[in-house]
Amino acid sequence: MNSRSKFFGAFIFFALVCVGCGNLPGRPAAHSVPIDPDDISDFNFLYAHNCAGCHGPNGKGGVSIALADPIYLTIADESVLRLATANGVAGTSMPAFAKSEGGMLTDQQIDVLVRGMREHWSKPGVLSGETVPPYSSPTSGDASRGAEVYTSFCSSCHGPQGSGGPSASSIVDGSYLALVSDQGLRTVVIVGRPELGAPDWRGNVPGKAMSSQDVSDVVAWLASKRTKYPGQPYQHSEKSAGEIR
Fold this sequence. Notes:
Blueprint: H1 3-21, H2 43-50, H3 52-55, H4 70-75, H5 78-87, H6 107-121, H7 143-153, H8 155-158, H9 174-179, H10 182-191, H11 212-223
Helix pairs in contact: 2-6, 5-6, 7-11, 10-11
């Protein structure tokens, strides 16, 4: 056997050994090798594992507002979405997701989520020709006038005092108001809760949309209903501690 034949023989043997090593017992398959969480960049995966629990599958709404709402995405620009996702909203149930704020996501993953929401769910021009109240209040609200605004636009569903009516629940409940910011209230008044049948700022009174000042005033009225200690005072029992009831 000449040297060339020996070389090719050795090469073929080596190749067969390498192929065989890929099937050795205990060797992990390529698809089973763990992925570094920081390398995940799929929008659907990131949304499902970080956002869907509150905002619902596919952004359709849950305990918190729907993100797959073109009206919401019209008034809340990219900077609003990024700030809320990265830093959370203090005093509410919205946590911070950015690693720099104690969360689990990188800045790049925050960008994937924000960009994905807009790419998947926004509809440019959906409110063309409409006068839309701005996301943030340009002026302070007047709680006294807000009571009148509430009566005009909200009481038919939520009841005369906001404690619940024929077609909607209480919006002055202490626990609810403790978990939502003034901005959160403003957002809901403007965009509604379409997944719950609650109209946006145009649909409370047929043919009469709420102005930006109307929104600011009713938010001020709702905020005035917050209690210092939600859920208090508890009813005091007449029985002493430890007494059999």
